[in-house]
Specification:
The complex is a heterodimer of chains A (110) and B (117).
Chain A: E1 4-6, E2 11-14, E3 19-25, E4 33-38, E5 45-50, E6 54-58, E7 61-66, E8 71-76, E9 85-92, E10 98-100, E11 104-109
Parallel strand pairs in A: 2-11
Antiparallel strand pairs in A: 1-3, 3-8, 4-5, 4-9, 6-7, 7-8, 9-10, 9-11
Chain B: E1 4-7, E2 10-13, E3 19-25, E4 32-38, E5 45-51, E6 57-58, E7 67-73, E8 76-81, E9 90-98, E10 105-108, E11 112-116
Parallel strand pairs in B: 2-11
Antiparallel strand pairs in B: 1-3, 3-8, 4-5, 4-9, 5-6, 7-8, 9-10, 9-11
Classes of the chains: A mainly beta (110), B mainly beta (117).
């Protein structure tokens, strides 16, 4: 079992819709969770981090964490063409390295 | 968010030469930095962990004598690709660990695109 698994993409949504990205992790002791956005040819950019169960909102982004279910998600509201990118779910391991999911490529159709 | 810079952003070199890439944390101290490599349309691959004041630790299959890492200060780590060959052409990205917040967070530099002719 992979440490971090993301729902398979690609995900195509119309402009203005909600994009929903899901991620599960295997280590029940994990404490810190991240969503990075990576545009083609660029490095990953941290867009959200979440440590506590529940929702965390930042602008059009909402991260949700459920430690009992070992599940973390990212919602992008009012999706814009500029949101088209690959989104990486990541978890910090005990050795401080990041475990990444395979990424979900999102395309927002104008 | 915190800022991590890399220099150069792009480098083209001849086969057999060495290339040094710098990674700097600009507004926080980073005792730990990480070096990744990413080939086109592939996932990030962790190469090594760079620890300030001590030797780097390398992932399995990464040659430590080929990819020299030096973390001489709390804000600077360097990766030197020695005797580069065309197969070393890739996108090299560093990340820096920010422990100044309540929890660990890692920020990535903008990456260095290496092309070896």
């Amino acid at each position: 079992q992979k440490e971090v698994e993301q729902n398979s993409g690609p995900l195509s949504v119309p402009e203005g819709a909600i994009a929903s990205l899901n991620c599960t992790y295997s280590d029940r002791g994990s404490q810190s969770f991240f969503w990075y956005r990576q545009y083609s040819g660029k490095s990953p950019e941290l867009i959200m981090f979440i440590y506590s169960n529940g929702d965390k909102e930042d602008g059009r982004f909402t991260a949700q964490l459920n430690k009992a279910s070992q599940y973390v998600s990212l919602l992008i509201r009012d999706s814009q063409p500029s949101d088209s990118a690959t989104y990486l779910c990541a978890v910090i391991r005990d050795d401080y390295k990041l475990s990444f999911g395979a990424g979900t490529t999102v395309t927002v159709r104008a | 968010g915190a800022v991590v810079s890399q220099h150069p952003s792009r480098v083209i070199c001849k086969s057999g030469t060495s290339v040094k890439i710098e990674c700097r944390s600009l507004d926080f101290q980073a005792t730990t930095m990480f070096w990744y490599r990413q080939f086109p349309k592939q996932s990030l691959m962790l190469m090594a962990t760079s620890n300030e004041g001590s030797k780097a630790t390398y992932e399995q299959g990464v040659e430590k004598d080929k990819f020299l890492i030096n973390h001489a200060s709390l804000t600077l780590s360097t990766l030197t690709v020695t005797s580069a060959h065309p197969e070393d052409s890739s996108f090299y990205i560093c990340s820096a660990r920010d422990t100044g917040l309540a929890r660990d967070t890692q920020y990535f530099g903008p990456g260095t695109r290496l092309t070896v002719l």
